[in-house]
Amino acid sequence: MINFNVPPFVGTEFKYMQEAVENQKICGDGPFTRKCDEWIEHRFGVKKAMLTTSGSSALDMAAFLCNINPGDEVILPSFTFSSTANAFVLAGAKLVFVDIRPDTMNIDENRIEDAITDRTKVICPVHYAGVACEMDTIMDIASRYDLRIVEDAAQGIMSTYKGKALGTIGDLGCFSFHETKNYSMGEGGAILINDVERIEKAEILREKGTNRSQFFRGQVAKYNWVDFGDSYLQSDLNAAYLWAQLEVADMINENRLATWNTYWGALKPLADKGVIELPTIPEGCIHNAHMFYIKCKDLETRQAYIEYMRKNDILCVFHYVPLHSAPAGAKFGRFHGEDKFTTVESDRLVRLPLYYGIAASDLNKIIEKTLAFFDSL
User: Full-prediction pTM beyond 0.90?
Assistant: First the structure.
């Protein structure tokens, strides 16, 4: 069976995890956590990065740092994972979903402004498949209406928009290092902070509401409970696993891009015939090959394709069910405007296996069976 995903592993993970054990510092903010934080800061030019227990908890922190009050509204796409929405629900916000662009599956920047009310506090663009949203337009809207921007860049590490790393453009950004992501520590994430005034509050929030970080830096004589907080610190064992991959981040990125480009070249003839649609990468965007998807003619064709591939021992999967159509979506939010593309495009999309180190023979089989299925139509 060709799996849809295999977590990245480069060979030095166990060595570094053993070092973490020998350091006798396996809780949060150990040596490997600091290495990862500093790597993110230096590589992407962000003022502060902090590893978290998950991409979801990074989003939770971002929502709390936006000072949301009950009844405030957050604008986001419906085509995203539940974590994007849960973070703002936890902070007390009302969700306002808007339609997506069919070319990138990202939030339609031209639908945001009409959804703004006097309760709107935050815009949360989600960079789907590691392809950037149209951030210039979104940042302009945020500036004119004095709104905060939280970038859900869970899939976006190593991707850029007009030379800027995803997650570093808005006020706050969030990465995920889940096992399905380009770089992984099993479960984990990071929050990226551009506004220096939020750094101290973020440290307190992440450290159970205490000023423990200031204490360790010698800024206070003792630490105390000073505000609301929770435990968002990632274990240094997990950070050690991640550090092994960040050391060779470019190698992993190039390997994934090579697979993505192979898919593109092999399947383009089907797209040229109008049988399928391939991903769109807008000008000014550099992506990270987080995923390769195709769009079938309709839901029936997609389901038939997934079943055909399964019978040939290849796991291909659909992706998000739009949040506004889910029970919790109706409970915690509303869809503003027309759902012209969100549902119909999500019904057509199917993801192909893509992971670091996928065997050439497996890749060739996936392409061969995909061509055979659509040729049979």
Answer: yes
